[in-house]
Model the fold of this input.
Amino acid sequence: MTIDDEILMAYADGELETARVAEVERLVAADPELARRVAEHRALSARLAGVHASALTEPLPDSLVQTVMGGAAQGEVVAFKPRRLLPAALPQWAALAATLVVGVVAGLGVPALRPAPLIGGDGMTAQGQLAQALDSQLASEPAGARRIAVGLSFRTADAYCRTFQAVRAHAVSGIACREADGWRVRLAVDRPAAPQPDGDYRLAASGLPTEVLQAVDGMIQGDPLDAQGEAKARAQNWRLP
Amino acid sequence: MDAFQRELVELLPRLRRFARTLTRDVPDADDLVQRAVERALQRRTQWMGGSRLDSWMFTIMKNAWIDETRQRGRRNRLLRPADEGEAVADATAASQESHLAAASVEQAVAALPEDQRIAVALVLVEGLSYAEAAEVLEVPVGTLTSRLVRGRAALQAQLRAG
Done:
């Protein structure tokens, strides 16, 4: 039997109907020319998988993200202007972060934030137990009975930043960075992280929502701080030397 | 932000990639994604939650692109009948040059006729199954596979020559 290219291609792609796979397999095994063509198909597939892959890692245009988010303004409670919340110089993830912060605060509503809000009325400043946790807790220490878990501590170009997860009443995870006047929440999402074993920042990081990890990826310089680096940064009050 | 918007944001990088294969131009690609996202938001009630958002978005984007190219074709016929011949000649020359030079995979894909280019993008770049790609294109699976065979043959020929 001869095999036309359509069948050979489907075989190479794993798309051939199951009933015919064994037969084609046998023919391919017996015929070096067929085997060469199958290999050629697979090599081409492998090369094509990388086409325009740069689109996957380039920062998203602001306008695009805002168009998607803008849909919320019509159907829901959230109205936002990310550019007014953040200095224009911040990278595009920050605009996304701002929309998320507003979404979270609006979504949770005031009752959920009582009696001790973690984020100030501006939607940006960490306060109360969140500010305390960011100041004093080390990620390398067990979270124990605390309400806030601090996951990753890392450096950006101009600040120390830390990821946090509210483990009890407030279902919030995010990133805060130490600025001159306190901890600024750069990103907050309204999903708690899965419970994590204590003590290992890599495990802790794995429980963070994808948005948070992606944002960390975009901000981080070098590796996350290890236990020693964290203790040192805390001793310096989380100010960059 | 609701689940639909979250999924859509997560999908944006792939939508941009698919749009680049469609339009062969980065700014055009982002314009196309923008239009597709606007359409999707208008029609979001038509999306069946739980079904694949990527396939649904690729369909919307493909249709937006067809509308766009039709409009362009009309504009070109009405406004610049003389230029069009030149543009076609240029494109042919450029494609022959890239053919002779070591043609990159992206250039080789860009040189494919549109129906083959979209089939290749959906199956080999975006990783859709034949059945899913046929659904996005709104054609029978047999039509999809014959486009795919022709597209691959052309790519292999061009890459071998390059």
Summary: The radius of gyration of chain A is 25 Å.
